[in-house]
From TrEMBL, chains A, B:
GO terms for cellular component: membrane. GO terms for molecular function: ABC-type transporter activity; ATP binding; ATP hydrolysis activity. It comes from the Eukaryota. The lineage of its organism: Eukaryota, Viridiplantae, Streptophyta, Embryophyta, Tracheophyta. This is ABC transporter domain-containing protein.
Length: 748, 748
């Protein structure tokens, strides 16, 4: 029976591309028993093969988007919401002197509260703020419901309430689809929520971005070629054909325009062709042409059989023409609800007719704003709206339910090709849909592929880290060039090791901004269960490894022989291994921090400070046996301690190595200044007293003595290595938990 | 004769505040020979006294701004620009593989260049890009001239060209005011340029912000009370009465709304009541109501006798009603020039009539965009505009010059109270106006006052630095608690000093973001000669000192006695002094860096890396006499060297202080492990060999020996202190030069 939605899309503009002439077929996936009419599918497949030729590119013309979908909507969905009420407790502001008085919209609300200081649930320190106050309404498929109002009026809160992003219990009232209350799990399957920010990887192309979304969200049962076809259909639906091969871009890399970026964001969320689409200010930050094109795309999505609910600050005249229902909010209350065409009548009956030629919504919003500033507030308008609503309902009392039950409607919709993600034709099992589209290993592969692609497109990021390591390595190599075996040389070796091991950790901090940027994308993606958090953590670690190996090798090569470290090849290998372990634990540490700090400057400051304390407690500045007892715990927490001790053991553990020989014993001591001949005589007399024969070449201090002096006695070098690696794993695990806790998705 | 502009501002809304009922009088200053009618001035003064009572606040209502100014404009100014042409050389893009092809508006332009690869001035590596191509037009006082077009069409470039922000020689064509070419100096006096970004101090109130602008820009001859009056008049003119006592605010501090902030930015630039006002996208980032209110304010400014020239991306219907002349640009070429009312006629004659009810500018911009994407480009429209212009000029050939010469016009304007800044009634001497409004000392006072006010309002910034110093101080104090006089104790003292002296420098890095933020405001302010760069550098340094003294004292108190440092009170005083010197040189260093790095992350990374190298070369990790010759220069550059050596000298210079006594000589040596009795015997035999009596209590190593061992022999402690202080001054001087070089204000 599928595809029902073989929409005959016809272009209303001669110059539009031929892509819009083929039918927009929505792929129902392999689970769909029906087969498409071969001509249509053939056309589509041919088109997929053709795309490569056509990637010459400018921005989409407005008129390419002006395509009409004449197909009448046959499957009725009605999203109703009744008496939604939501309030939060906010700390009560104390009476402040003049210049601390804020000039925000809540001033009047504050005044109201002050007049009646202890409303239900209020205390002297908190007051209840009504974010939503008894909001009702409905939205139908094929239509766009727009929520309008000033900032702070409750637009986003209403969208959140409908999208089930407010924790149960906090929100009063009910939200139903075709008369049935929606379960959270069900809603996640049939809906999508588009956030206001475009969180996209800047170095992926539009097509790649959508393809990764398809791989994450479309069911594993769908073949790769069908996923590709879905992406191609979506690119056309979004009007992104000309930008398909362009990278998203960022400040440093030129990419697609702001409007195209917003459409890509929408595309990611509707990859599974949801029945309900929620959008929080999809047009914010766009110029009016781009904004219009975005809403035009939304209209097209609605007409493909979806309910679109969006908030919008102030629609332009053209955008207003695309909206089917409006809800005006003011301080959490409805001040108008109905179609745009009824606006003039409503306001003229209210006694404020909209002047000819004036933008209707601009006028309405200004009027509301003015009322908000007036002593009576918007109460009169709220009351007027209530009576208007009841009047309207008596005038045209259309039936709320259009017949089909939710199950029947969803089932019919699925057979028409909607809900590509995970849903099957059997509505009962659609509730049994797996939480994640892909198995664990597949997620790992796709995530790793994406990470590697990103790194490849931004080689400068790794380049900077490599440069930092090489520069520091070269400076250390030349400063500590061929250290000798003398008491001074020993001291310098200690300094070199302390500095070198800290460097590895500090270098890792440079990756912080990238991690932080990625975290937002991660939060967006896991919000709709694109993949398991664990796959992300593991793939993130695995992809980092080759780079870390390279950095460690570069640093080890630059310093080991130049400084004249001991142990030959096996010594070098261990040196390289411990470098690698430090880079690993350092990058794990920074990754973990990126999961908990809110922004990059704070993160960097914290990393630098903590690493400084790690160095202070590593055993270099003060030996373990001299650290006061109340601080010894920090010594064992110090990440730098373990690699520092490991390299010292690697250097000094050789018992045959002599570091102080014969009269060198007097170096660095008060007797260091006396003439050499005198030192020899002195040595002889010491020799006699001790009853041991000591000559000029007798070894006085071995490496083991040094280790003892430095208090490095508790761990073998291999144990140090193991502990360093274990720290790395520990921080990855902590990172996992930080992601679990950090990506909470609901208001309380 | 003044005040001519006694605008009878009447409110069209009953609820508006009484501020709009008094006359908006522009203060001509003491140099104006005319006196105001006493009743009006009395009203105004009374009003100034009254403002304090009325600071209750919400946002401005739209209708408060809708005030009519009925006064006809009597002094004609005409800004004409003819055949403005400006091109830059850009690197030619090489043919890149598929995914690197950008989808930007310049694709067609690129193609045109590829077709004709070697145009005049082009090479194989660069091509010439026309940013402005033969643009002509004019603007009159009392009117707003708006430049429209897509991003990249040359809007900002045209504004820059008119505002003389493009270096001479690069720009072809001419710009005249009343027929005379404007000299740069002259233009600076009579015009203002408002940038797109709001660079304001977040913690100052609107009134304070404008008052500081008045103090910087209005002439010294004007009394403080008159400056205050000018600010009050401006607050009303900008519709900011209700927000006057509100702070500007930032992410962390709630302040005025975006539209109000933009109006404050405009207010700062028009504090001297300029004749020409240039604005680069004054409405960008604002919602349409705020944008309308900003343009309404601009209209009011124009009607007070100024020429307003602004760029705007896409004006709403209501804003369009406020604009008097439009220039539409497309890729640097004029595609329409004329009044908004002629737009429909123009486009219908061009063959693309604007549909009924469609937003005219939206339609026009969409059409232009479509033409840009078409093969022929906008050539047809450019040609059509040319013929339309010549037709129009024959139809209504109004005289270009309205009689008054530039000198006469400016002179008349000044007597009407315009040009409060520095201009006098005598036009010849107006060119002799001093570059800066205030003398050096006055600038210092005002700048310092502002800095102190800012710091007071953000105590958390200093709090964080103090906390960092105290936490590190306490950790160091407890880790190195009461160090003993033994070889180990000496080693630990060295470590403590190295760590402590680095800490002072690292703590300074925390101030980087604040400095960077301030730099942008500095650049904005010095661009119009608000004050001398030198005053800023000196005031910046002076204001920082008390905080640095406090930090040094806190750190010195926390550590000196806890660690058990030597020297008693005089030792502590020197220790405190050298701490202060390090904080001084560290903050100077960071201040200097903030003048040269482009953004905060890079700055922080550089500071951390450089400080690490400073520490490496300070003499702690490797003694001066052991540093390879090719690196010794860096040792002397190391900021950390000098305070480190100073504290070591302060600690160890006391010749009576003994650090190694009797058998302690064997500590830290291979003989350290033998029993005490044996050590005593050994000491006796050494004593005999040397022919010196050495007992258990004989001092073996004094502090001087330690200094010798550590290679600290070249500078006395007072010299170290002096050099540290000198570094601080050097970096302040470098900071001054970085500001000189960094605040270039013109395109090349």
């Amino acid at each position: 029976m599928s595809p029902i939605v073989a929409q005959n899309v016809s272009s209303n503009n001669d110059s539009s591309t031929p892509y819009f002439q083929h039918s927009l077929e929505l792929i129902a996936g392999e689970f769909s028993t029906a087969t498409a009419p071969s001509s249509t599918l053939g056309q589509l497949l041919q088109h997929v093969g053709d795309t490569r030729k056509e990637a010459t590119g400018d921005q989409t013309s407005v008129h390419e988007l002006l395509v009409d979908i004449s197909e009448p909507r046959p499957i009725p969905f009605v999203l109703s919401f009744n008496n939604l009420t939501y309030s939060v407790k906010v700390p009560r502001k104390m009476a402040l002197p003049g210049f601390f008085r804020w000039s925000d919209g809540s001033a009047a609300a504050d005044a109201a509260v002050v007049g009646n200081p202890l409303a239900a649930g209020d205390s002297y320190f908190t007051r209840t703020k009504m974010l939503l106050n008894d909001i009702s309404g409905e939205a139908q498929d094929g239509e766009i419901l727009a929520v309008l109002g000033a900032s702070g009026s409750g637009k986003s809160t209403l969208i959140d309430a409908l999208a089930n992003r407010i924790a149960k219990g906090s929100l009063k009232g009910n939200v139903t689809l075709n008369g049935e209350t929606l379960k959270s799990r069900m809603l996640k399957v049939i809906s999508a929520y588009v956030m206001q920010d475009d969180l996209l990887f800047p170095m992926l192309t539009v097509e790649e971005t959508l393809m990764f979304a398809a791989e994450f969200r479309l069911p594993r049962t769908l073949s790769k070629s069908k996923k590709k076809m879905r992406v191609q259909v979506l690119i056309d639906q979004l009007g992104l054909r000309n930008a398909a091969k362009t990278i998203i871009g960022d400040e440093g890399h030129r990419g697609v325009s702001g409007g195209e970026r917003r459409r890509v964001s929408i595309g990611i969320d509707i990859i599974h062709d949801p029945i309900i689409l929620f959008l929080d200010e999809p047009t914010s930050g766009l110029d009016s042409t781009s904004a219009f094109m975005v809403v035009k795309v939304l209209q097209r999505i609605a007409q493909s059989g979806s309910i679109v609910v969006m908030s919008i600050h102030q629609p332009s005249y053209r955008i207003l023409g695309l909206l089917d229902r409006l809800i005006f909010l003011s301080r959490g209350q409805t001040v108008y609800s109905g179609s745009p065409t009824n606006l003039p009548l409503y306001f003229s009956e209210f006694g404020h007719p909209i002047p000819e030629n004036e933008n209707k919504t601009e006028f309405a919003l200004d009027l509301i704003r003015e009322l908000e500033g007036s002593p009576g507030g918007t109460k009169s308008l709220v009351e007027f709206n209530k009576s208007w609503q009841s009047m309207k309902h008596t005038r045209d009392s259309e039936p709320d339910q259009l017949g089909l039950s939710l199950k029947e409607a969803i089932s019919a919709s699925i057979s028409r090709g909607k809900l590509v993600s995970g849903a099957t034709n059997d509505i009962n099992s659609s509730l049994m849909v797996p939480t994640f589209a892909n198995p664990f290993w597949k997620e790992m592969v796709v995530l790793s592929k994406r990470s590697i692609l990103n790194s490849k497109r931004m080689p400068e990021l790794f380049g900077i880290r490599l440069a930092a390591v090489l520069v520091t390595g070269s400076i250390l190599a030349t400063v500590f060039w061929q250290l000798d075996n003398s008491p001074k040389g020993v001291q310098e070796r200690l300094g070199f090791f302390a500095f070198a091991m800290s460097t590895t950790y500090y270098t890792c901090a440079d990756a912080l901004p990238v991690f932080l940027q990625e975290r937002y994308i991660f939060m967006r993606e896991t919000a709709y269960n694109a993949y398991r958090r664990l796959s992300y953590v593991i793939s993130n670690a695995l992809v980092a490894l080759p780079g870390l190996i390279f950095l460690s090798f570069a640093f080890a090569m630059a310093t080991f022989w130049a400084v004249g470290l001991d142990g030959g090849l096996s010594g070098f290998l261990f040196y390289f291994l411990i470098m690698f372990a430090s880079f690993w634990s350092g990058s794990s540490f920074v990754t973990f921090l990126s999961g908990v700090v809110p922004h990059v400057m704070l993160g960097y400051t914290i990393v630098v400070a903590i690493l400084a304390y790690f160095l202070l407690f590593s055993g270099f500045f003060i030996n373990r046996d001299r650290i006061p007892g109340y601080w010894i715990w920090f010594h064992y927490l110090s990440l730098v301690k373990y690699p520092y001790e490991a390299v010292l053991r690697n250097e000094f553990e050789n018992p045959s190595k002599c570091l102080v020989r014969g009269i060198q014993i007097f170096d660095n001591s008060p007797l260091g200044e006396i003439p050499s001949a005198m030192k020899v005589r002195l040595l002889q007399s010491v020799s006699k007293s001790l009853g041991v024969r000591i000559t000029r070449s007798t070894c006085m201090t071995t490496g083991l003595d040094i280790l003892k002096q430095e208090g490095i006695t508790d761990l073998s070098k291999w144990n140090c290595l193991l502990i360093t690696v274990a720290w790395g794993f520990l921080f990855r695990i902590l990172f996992y938990f930080s992601l679990l806790l950090g990506s909470k998705n609901k208001r309380s």
